[in-house]
């Protein structure tokens, strides 16, 4: 009989030291000894991708995109080899593969590539030899043979896409929290762990900065029905399952997106700026039309690139953060949330409503306090949340 197959992904903190790599190896061995075939995806050791990025920026504020991918992909290559060595030393046959060796083929969009297809034969061959296969996350290769990376946090997407291609029984994302919470538990201490979260809510959370899952990983899992679970490397519990096509909670959670820039622009240059952004692949989150000024909002890390292209057309810019409430009824919070924030002396710069979400632009220093206030007002008292969770779990 064919053995079940699971894909386990370990993030940067989980492989952050040799001691932690040992802990990761124990999880893998446990899965293997329980009769599973195991494919593992690893991130770079914590801090490593930032270190490499910083080196590149010392050379050029806008590094060559192709070379940057060659550099950043090295981070994952270190952890995959260390983990494979650890498992071999512990008596478990293991082989590591880079994205290219695992035939993870992407488009040509350096630094933010999309996986087009995976030829699973090198992995299945190793599994047939009873090996544990370790794959470098976050990276792939173009048809032309260039190394690409999938955008920050992209190892989740490597894992989920591999799970889909291999028809895995489950994709387990091991991280430094024990599941998906109603808000980042490092910001809101009262945040509640969700045993189950539906796909539309999780997609809206990931789109708006909840980095517990990389957005394309959620979208791929939803579309391709990959059983997806988030759980802790350091704690034993069931974690959170992402499941269901309907957004069932009035307010499922809050997401925080830091490091955004509000850039004031002259009305006459807006069209040109939008065009340039499209050409160089910068996403404009929104255009804000204030009675006294006009501004675009983009991620901070896109700014150097934008400045280079616009040369002088950017009047002034400042940092903002975005706080997003996600759920089926979030549009109903439009007025009450801004009243609540105003009564606590928090300035709302802008609000934007989407399907399943309401986003509030704030000054960076007030976003954590605002998240706690909104959580307390709209999520914590929700007994319905617990009932809905039970209902979802039983189905
Ligand atoms: P990894 O390195 O394992 O990929 P990440 O740092 O990318 O881990 O993602 C895990 C982090 O996501 C947590 O440490 C937590 O601070 C943050 N996070 C943000 N929003 C949430 C949320 N709703 N639930 C759980 N964690 C969240
Ligand atoms: N190492 C990459 C990053 O730091 C990818 C990942 O961790 O998922 O973004
Ligand atoms: Mg991550």
UniProtKB/TrEMBL annotation:
Pfam families: AA_kinase. Its EC number is 2.7.2.4. GO terms for biological process: homoserine biosynthetic process; lysine biosynthetic process via diaminopimelate; threonine biosynthetic process. GO terms for cellular component: cytosol. Residues 5-231 form the Aspartate/glutamate/uridylate kinase domain. It catalyses: L-aspartate + ATP = 4-phospho-L-aspartate + ADP. The keyword Transferase applies. It comes from the Bacteria. SUPFAM superfamilies: Carbamate kinase-like. GO terms for molecular function: aspartate kinase activity; ATP binding. InterPro entries: AceGlu_kinase-like_sf, AKii-LysC-BS, Asp/Glu/Uridylate_kinase, Asp_kinase, Aspartate_kinase_CS. Belongs to the aspartokinase family. This is Aspartokinase. It comes from Vibrio panuliri.
């Amino acid at each position: 009989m064919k053995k079940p197959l699971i894909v386990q992904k370990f993030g940067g903190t989980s492989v952050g030291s040799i001691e932690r790599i040992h802990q990761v190896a124990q999880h893998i061995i446990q899965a293997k000894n329980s009769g599973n075939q195991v494919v593992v995806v690893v991130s770079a050791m914590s801090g490593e991708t930032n270190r490499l990025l910083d080196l590149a920026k010392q050379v050029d504020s806008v590094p060559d995109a192709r070379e940057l991918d060659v550099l950043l992909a090295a981070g994952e290559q270190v952890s995959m080899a260390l983990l494979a060595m650890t498992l071999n030393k512990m008596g478990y046959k293991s082989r590591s593969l880079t994205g290219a060796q695992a035939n993870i083929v992407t488009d040509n969009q350096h630094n933010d590539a999309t996986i087009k297809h995976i030829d699973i034969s090198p992995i299945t061959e190793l599994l047939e030899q009873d090996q544990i296969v370790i794959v470098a996350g976050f990276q792939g290769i173009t048809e032309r043979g260039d190394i690409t990376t999938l955008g920050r946090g992209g190892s989740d997407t490597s894992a989920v896409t591999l799970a889909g291609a291999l028809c895995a029984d489950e994709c387990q994302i091991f991280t430094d929290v024990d599941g998906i919470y109603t808000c980042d538990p490092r910001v809101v201490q009262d945040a509640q762990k969700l045993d189950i979260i539906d796909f539309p809510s999780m997609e809206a959370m990931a789109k708006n900065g909840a980095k517990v899952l990389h957005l394309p990983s959620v979208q791929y899992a939803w579309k391709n029905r990959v059983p997806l679970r988030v759980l802790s490397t350091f704690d034993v519990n069931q974690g959170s399952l992402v499941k269901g096509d309907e957004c069932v909670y009035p307010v499922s959670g809050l997401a925080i997106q830091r490091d955004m820039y509000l850039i004031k622009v002259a009305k006459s240059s807006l069209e040109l700026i939008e065009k340039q952004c499209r050409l160089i692949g910068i996403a404009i989150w929104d255009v804000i039309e204030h009675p006294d000024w006009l501004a675009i909002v983009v991620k901070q890390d896109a700014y150097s690139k934008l400045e280079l292209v616009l040369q002088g057309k950017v009047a002034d810019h400042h940092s903002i953060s975005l706080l997003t409430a996600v759920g089926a009824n979030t549009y109903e919070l439009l007025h009450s949330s801004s009243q609540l924030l105003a009564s606590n002396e928090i300035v709302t710069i802008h609000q934007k409503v989407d399907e399943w979400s309401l986003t509030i632009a704030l000054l960076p220093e007030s976003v954590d306090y605002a998240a706690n206030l909104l959580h307390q007002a709209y999520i914590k008292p929700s007994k319905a949340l617990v009932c809905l969770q039970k209902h979802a779990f039983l189905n």
